[in-house]
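Notes continue from the previous slide.

Worked example: a multi-chain complex. Inputs as given:
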Amino acid sequence: MKPVGPIPAGYDTIAGELAIGGKRVSELVAEAGRTPLFVYSRSHLDARVAELRAAMPRRMGLNYAVKANPHPDVIAYMASLVDGFDIASSGELAMCAAAGIDPRRISFAGPGKRDDELEAAIAAGVTLNCESEGEGARALAIGQKLGTAPRIAVRVNPSFEMKGSGMKMGGGAKQFGVDAERVPELARHLIENGAEWRGLHIFTGSQTLSADAIVEAQGKVLDLAAELTDAIGHGCPKLNMGGGLGIPYFPGDTPVDLGRVGAALHARVADLPASLADTELCIELGRYLVGEAGVYLTRIIDRKVSHGVTYLITDGGLHHQLAASGNFGTVVRRNYPSAIATRYDDNPTESVNIVGCLCTPLDRLADNAAMPEAQVGDLVAVFCAGAYGATASPTAFLGHGPAAEMLV
Amino acid sequence: MKPVGPIPAGYDTIAGELAIGGKRVSELVAEAGRTPLFVYSRSHLDARVAELRAAMPRRMGLNYAVKANPHPDVIAYMASLVDGFDIASSGELAMCAAAGIDPRRISFAGPGKRDDELEAAIAAGVTLNCESEGEGARALAIGQKLGTAPRIAVRVNPSFEMKGSGMKMGGGAKQFGVDAERVPELARHLIENGAEWRGLHIFTGSQTLSADAIVEAQGKVLDLAAELTDAIGHGCPKLNMGGGLGIPYFPGDTPVDLGRVGAALHARVADLPASLADTELCIELGRYLVGEAGVYLTRIIDRKVSHGVTYLITDGGLHHQLAASGNFGTVVRRNYPSAIATRYDDNPTESVNIVGCLCTPLDRLADNAAMPEAQVGDLVAVFCAGAYGATASPTAFLGHGPAAEMLV
């Protein structure tokens, strides 16, 4: 038996069935007209933002990293909840524009911005998080061509990383940002050549569950930002402190102690160095805001036994949930939180392998997991599907096409 | 320095630049109008099929597994080269129909066929490779509803695997096919209840470079097919022996010794057991047919140094080439074959990291690779991009969209 990950808080049942937003999953599937279906829960988004607002200093702005979930309804809903948006491409800029988001609330990071992307962003008034001297020169040239002062912050590659983070974004050679020691010269060059100076972006890692590691990294980010601001000599209008707050996916994972992170930030913000006294501060979160708000629902279309092992074969799979299959940036496959959604209150009575419909042994949703006995037609729920699910999976693989998506 | 994988044979240069189908890559990119671009080479497809036809017994049919590369032009071109097509979804059925392929040349495997997929396939006259007793019952019921005898083969889960295969499709509990000992009963049930009996499908593994392992597995497949056919008692109209022939991706990999595989098949086919005397034989290949025929071209948009490491940042990445990034079914990342396509004849002079444009450290195309000094605007080629590239990657990730594709 292999355990499954912890199911996020805030999900209910109606008549023994998993319910989201006050409706049974079978009703939601009927509304969508098909499976597989991603359901995103407004009440989870609300609750997560409320927790963050309660824990963080009032001065701390909250940005949404669109890449985590760019579904149009999610972007539009987040617009009412957060202060800013971080994008990673001109495609995401277009999605934000479609949701009516003021481009001045948007910043654009990414190590490989094409000229046409820079032009679209500069023309719209989006802040560029400049990732290199070369990109800075291209942005200045495009600003001149357009007759617009490009709004530019510099993304810093810090010499430290966030400990225990799932993806390290600092601490050594990286394709992201500019090594800290070269930042002052680049920033001055941009300011002296007509950029509207927007400050610094320092991203140190992602998917960390340790409050201590987050507190330590955030402290170092503030120290580094103050030091760089002094060296630049033009103040720091805004500091994007990055993200890094993780969510529990796997057995044994526990949520970030947000109270502790918030308390440490309160203390630091109450005692900021003079060079950051007027700086607008924000953190940038993607997965932490939307990850636990999403559930992936897929229908069992076969139940079969091979050499004594029971397989539940669903109409979903890694073409929608690559990370849950264990094939995206993972070394050892572990089970995401999952359940038989239509028998949610039943006790487990058997061990099953839940797999997708693809013709590849990589297509696994839960291995050797304890579940109530499910039949063809039952719905399987895979939790923690709100971030890096629908758009971080190979939807064209084997020709089944994308899943449906719904915000409730 | 980390070596890159072996570049497939059959690529030329013109004026020092990589050429495909008699044109420089910069010309091809100009024709496509943009990068990133997948280029698929007709002459490579021709050559590979010719090698196979020369090596294999004439009696051995050649099927193309559409999932490897379902680009419409590739499917249409393969229709003139191969005998049959294997599909994995009704989406792939529609692609074959669009290419004008006779459904009677098509067989459909996949552990999770939905009822609407079974119906489409049965109505069209496609052969179902039946994966379970449950699927068999559904197929019979749909056949009755349609008034059509469903054409059905049984996919066998053999008790042996192909040794050294990248993905094992046999040898223990699997979600694929029916355990060998239950096949005779299921086959008889299908035949007695109105199915048009189409024989057996036995797939033992994929991506094997060892001729010995392939020969051994093919021998066992023939033995098993004969044994099952005797037990079923209705002959075996067709035997799909699966695929498994791999291509070299990584340093040290060497091509399959096709002569040896062919010679062993000649010997076996000349001495088939009586129960397979009239059986139509075929092998089913995807990656082996198209993998080396594809090149992924992406443009360098930044060149930067971080802590002494040089990064070439391209406009492509794992959203098109997930496997090359090392994030799809791989434990240890190794470098795919790659080159600076626009300086193809130059000697390597530096070590670089070639990365994609995505804002994630997972987005790597070549680590610490020896290359001639490349500048912004140069094109990078990643080889072995013809199979499981464009459609096996998360194209929506970060909003950059799909690459262009072109058959030349």
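Summary box: The radius of gyration of chain B is 22 Å. The longest helix of chain B spans residues 211-232.
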